[in-house]
Design brief:
With 237 residues, the chain is of the alpha/beta class. It has one domain: NAD(P)-binding Rossmann-like Domain (Rossmann fold, 3-Layer(aba) Sandwich). The chain contains 8 helices and 7 strands. Strands 3-2-1-4-5-6-7 form a 7-stranded parallel β-sheet, sandwiched between helices. It is globular.
């Protein structure tokens, strides 16, 4: 039996974040999601506006969630962007803007979330990385750097806050069937599938299931883990 908790999923209005939010709703949790517009979250959730690159915006989002649902007990830090470009053509802004959303944005959200978690002596933090954080990818020096950084973040949080009943884990999805992957050329999709031992793309529900487990009472003794949901693509990394 899972204890009902207050859950916040950043970037929960589409793709993986939306599926994660829907999974937590189905399990009976109180679920809030953030989107940049403050709209578009799945049924049964509270949707609040947040820009993770803006500390004041993050503060306002947490205040709204706390007022409506209580302190955040489970944080799924999912908001992220890509801006792919070959290294020689990648500007400094192309690099820093991706890190500011994916890595520093996650720092802002986590830092705000742990205030309530430390008081409650309970918290579940799940950071959404990517197989390319460890595996690498052409044209994604910025994105892979930001996603690799989340592993160090989770492990440092684990060492700092593990004694306070707070866990921090990382999910690294591989190629997941979303609007983004469906837009790829068919021959490129076929090439990617060839590299995946499972011989298929994953589903958003595969990732949501991993998030639900890591946030559950059953995962209380799992922290600092990197959990691949990639059909075997990143094995050994």
């Amino acid at each position: 039996m899972t204890t009902p908790r207050t859950v916040l999923v950043t970037g929960g209005n589409r793709g993986i974040g939306r599926a994660v939010a829907e999974r937590f709703v189905s399990e009976g949790h109180r679920v809030a999601v953030t989107s940049r517009s403050g709209a578009g979250g799945p049924e049964g959730t509270l949707t609040v506006a947040a820009d993770v690159t803006d500390g004041a915006s993050v503060e306002q989002a947490f205040a709204a969630v706390e007022a409506a649902l209580g302190p955040v007990e489970i944080l799924i830090a999912n908001a992220g962007i890509t801006n792919d470009q070959l290294l020689l053509r990648m500007s400094e802004d192309d690099f820093t803007s991706v890190l500011d959303t994916n890595l520093t944005g996650t720092f802002r959200v986590v830092k705000r979330a742990i205030k309530g978690m430390m008081r409650a002596k309970f918290g579940r933090i799940v950071l959404m990385s990517s197989v390319v954080g460890m595996y690498g990818q052409v044209g994604q020096v910025n994105y892979s750097s930001s996603k690799a950084g989340l592993v160090g973040m989770a492990r440092s949080i684990t060492r700092e806050l593990g004694s306070r009943g707070i866990t921090a884990n990382v999910i690294a999805p591989g190629f997941i069937a979303t609007d983004m992957t469906s837009g790829l050329a068919e021959d490129l999709q076929a090439e990617f599938v060839k590299a995946i031992p499972a011989a298929r793309f994953g589903s958003v529900d595969d990732v949501a299931a991993a998030a639900a487990f890591l946030a559950s009472d059953s995962a209380a003794y799992i922290s600092g883990a990197l959990v691949p949901v990639d059909g075997g693509l990143g094995m050994g990394h």
